[in-house]
User: What shape does this take?
Amino acid sequence: MFLTINGLAKSFGANEVLKNIDVSVEKGRVVSIIGPSGSGKTTLLRCLNALEQPDKGMFLFDDGLQLNFEKKVTKKELLELRRKSGMVFQSYNLFPHKTALQNVTEGPINVQKSKKTEVEELARELLRKVGLEDKMDLYPHQLSGGQQQRVGIARALAMEPELMLFDEPTSALDPELVGEVLRVIKDLAKENWTMVIVTHEIQFASEVSDHVIFMDGGYIVEQGPPEEVLKYPKEERTKQFLHRILNPA
Ligand SMILES: Nc1ncnc2c1ncn2[C@@H]1O[C@H](COP(=O)(O)OP(=O)(O)OP(=O)(O)O)[C@@H](O)[C@H]1O
Ligand SMILES: [Mg+2]
Assistant: This one.
């Protein structure tokens, strides 16, 4: 098991956003998270990326890193947690005044203090991998949404994370641009990247995932293989959600 999450809880003031979340992520596997707006999906990813601190619960990694949020978690532990994962945001979050290449090299140069020439070589390779070999010197405003998001993916990969986190990576895109981004994520799945993906793309989730989690109201209502959760859900709330999302009014 790459990561085991036990009893994770997070509140914002009186609002309990995550309640007793248990999740396991296997190495080289894809976990997808689905669920209605406000159910806590982004908060869960942000906890995994150390952008938020849980109130309760444990993260146990296969290399021995343990974060117990009942106790005081040190800055060093949070930094180790942060380093493990790369996050791809719904809104791309690229630096507007940097080129595609500079967006990808920024993290390794400034955070990891790696050598510029080596980082540039890696960044070019990653931009080729996401199909942007001819766009490396363009700025975000000169790129389509799908191209910007592929830069976002290359940027996350450049930090050489063990875990890739995607927060609705295609929901800001025009429908015709969704496919090119999903294809890149599918390629990563084939290369056995360990990934957690929040998505509303049910067909994609059923194709790419090894495990699907349905969240509602801060709880995991149901989880299991995609054939079960997406095709033959047991819980009424899962059935209703899938019906709504697959039959938009
Ligand atoms: N920084 C914050 N401060 C206060 N409340 C927050 C904060 N971040 C999230 N919340 C609240 O936590 C709840 C869950 O939010 P979250 O963004 O995790 O949901 P989500 O499942 O990602 O929804 P969506 O599908 O709309 O992205 C919401 O009620 C939200 O208002
Ligand atoms: Mg969200």
